[in-house]
Amino acid sequence: MYKLIRFYNQNRKKIFKIILIIVLIIGLIQLLNYFAKQSNNIDKNDYEQKNIVNTNNEKNQDIISNKSLVSGSIVSNEKLKKDVDVIDEFIKYCNNKDINSAYNLLTEECKEVMFPSVQDFYNIYYLNIFNEKTKTYTVENWTDSTYQVRYTEDILSSGKLNGDETKQDYITVVKENEEKRLNINNYIRRKKANKVTEYKDIKVTIVSIDTYMDYEIYNFAIQNNSENTILLDTSDDAKSIYLLDSKNMKYEFYNNEIIENRLIVKSKFTNNLQVKFTNSYSATRRIEKIVFSKLVLNYDKYNQLEDKSEYRDFYEFKVNV
């Protein structure tokens, strides 16, 4: 006992230093453990919250802006919520691989023009955008009821740090039979026109206009009441058929997408014709005329020429829109 007391008295300062160091080390370890535990709890809660969100496919959208990217106008919160809700419902169905329910949210026009069957929708749209994977998305108002939607693979669902590249679509919300439905795959809308213009015993009816994000397709009924077979256009010049807007801007047609036989209309016959124009979508642009600048009123005479480049007897037919 005496030796122990003597050792303590001789080394008292060293002992206190050792004890102090031990206490500081223990305290530091406990402090680090505390912060580590708090960080883990935050990460865990954050992960669980995201996991719940993605498992239920709720709140998987990020609304970037309710301000139109084109006009700068603001979409009301009520309209924005209703429009985004139906877009979100569509994406939930796709994420859950419920192809039939997703297809049923499309307008009848969109089905007719883009996806005549569920299988078409699956092959053309679902496999291209989703491809059996879960997607999150961002939505931004483009103009009026059309939204720019960007799809990205869900990292939590896929387990990959780098998902597939972002894919973009323009989706338009349409009221059909008192319910909101969607036009997708850059298809905006169909406008019934039934606008009639007559010239030189030729009656042209614009039946309807299908508008896409990057182009428009005009659907015509061409009635030839003359005594001769006519040729609407020689289709050798992309500038010969064009749209003319209120500011005299021209929008040319895709001449490589029309079969020449469709431009030939026999006497006393009516042909249905589709013409595609390079007219990107704008809610404010006003198209006033469709101009057929190389109309041939006597196709038989024209067809007999060996060198058709010599033909000069063209007419200009302006169709009112």
Order of helices and strands: HHEHHHHEEHEEEEEEEEHEEEHE
Quaternary status:
single chain
As for the CATH topology of the largest domain, it is: Immunoglobulin-like
Radius of gyration: 34 Å
Secondary structure topology:
Blueprint: H1 2-10, H2 12-55, E1 61-65, H3 77-95, H4 99-104, H5 108-113, H6 118-129, E2 135-143, E3 146-153, H7 155-158, E4 167-176, E5 179-183, E6 187-199, E7 202-212, E8 216-224, E9 230-231, E10 241-245, E11 250-252, H8 260-263, E12 264-265, E13 270-277, E14 287-295, H9 299-303, E15 315-320
Parallel strand pairs: 1-2
Antiparallel strand pairs: 2-3, 3-4, 4-5, 6-7, 7-8, 8-13, 9-12, 10-11, 10-14, 14-15
